[in-house]
């Protein structure tokens, strides 16, 4: 598939989602859409804030020390203290396969990582491993954890808000009727469409991170050649800068 076709598909996806929610807003009316839109916005904000705190806590409490200890034990018998500082690639080989692929996909191959990080390392095997984990592994694990937690929290909160909005469906005619109701619903539908596009972008980012940036025709060139999709992608707080 040509890269330009992928870019067109991504832009069309943004348009279709937004137009779909505008039509949905016209049909549902102002009151239901007000609850839905405010709920989706609140869900995004709460899920984002909570995902940051949870991702940091989970990594520090359950992942960091175990990862450093596991890697240190694996390489301590094969590398001397003097060799360890120049053998970043050997340390990376001890990472789980999917995590190693993510590191290579986002930071470059072993030679590149060895060049940029290895020269700055000095100390024991454990200290060097800890540095590798903190500088290379942590940013990736944190992003993936945060994306996953955001999506889970957002989905749970959205279920609660949706249940509330369903109770208001029969009240819409008591508040606004006719064209004003439809126009107000359409405006809120547009807002909800934009928020939905943002959630879809997070899902795509998560897939890109987990694949190590190796998804065919979904690289940075294809994304940046889009007109609409790249706006959401570049504004996302989950982009690894």
From TrEMBL:
Transmembrane regions: 6-26, 140-161, 182-208
Keyword Transmembrane attributed: yes
Alphabetically ordered keywords of this record: Membrane, Transmembrane, Transmembrane helix
UniProt KW Membrane keyword: yes
Protein's recorded name: CvpA family protein
């Amino acid at each position: 598939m040509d890269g330009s076709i992928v870019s067109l598909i991504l832009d069309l996806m943004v348009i279709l989602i937004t137009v779909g929610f505008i039509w949905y807003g016209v049909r549902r009316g102002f009151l239901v859409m007000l609850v839905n839109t405010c709920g989706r916005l609140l869900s995004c904000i709460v899920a984002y804030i909570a995902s940051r705190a949870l991702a940091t806590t989970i990594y520090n409490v359950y992942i960091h020390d175990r990862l450093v200890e596991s890697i240190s034990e694996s390489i301590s018998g094969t590398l001397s203290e003097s060799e360890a500082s120049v053998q970043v690639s050997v340390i990376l080989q001890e990472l789980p396969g999917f995590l190693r692929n993510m590191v290579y996909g986002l930071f470059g191959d072993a030679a590149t990582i060895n060049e940029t990080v290895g020269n700055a390392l000095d100390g024991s095997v454990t200290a060097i491993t800890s540095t590798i984990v903190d500088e290379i592994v942590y940013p990736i694990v944190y992003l993936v954890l945060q994306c996953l937690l955001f999506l889970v929290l957002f989905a749970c909160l959205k279920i609660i808000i949706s249940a509330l909005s369903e109770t208001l469906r029969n009240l819409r005619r008591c508040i606004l009727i006719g064209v004003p109701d439809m126009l107000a619903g359409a405006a809120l539908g547009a807002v909800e469409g934009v928020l939905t596009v943002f959630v879809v972008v997070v899902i795509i980012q998560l897939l890109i991170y987990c694949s190590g940036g190796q998804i065919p025709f979904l690289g940075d060139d294809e994304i940046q050649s889009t007109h609409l999709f790249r706006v959401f992608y570049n504004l996302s707080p989950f982009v690894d800068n």
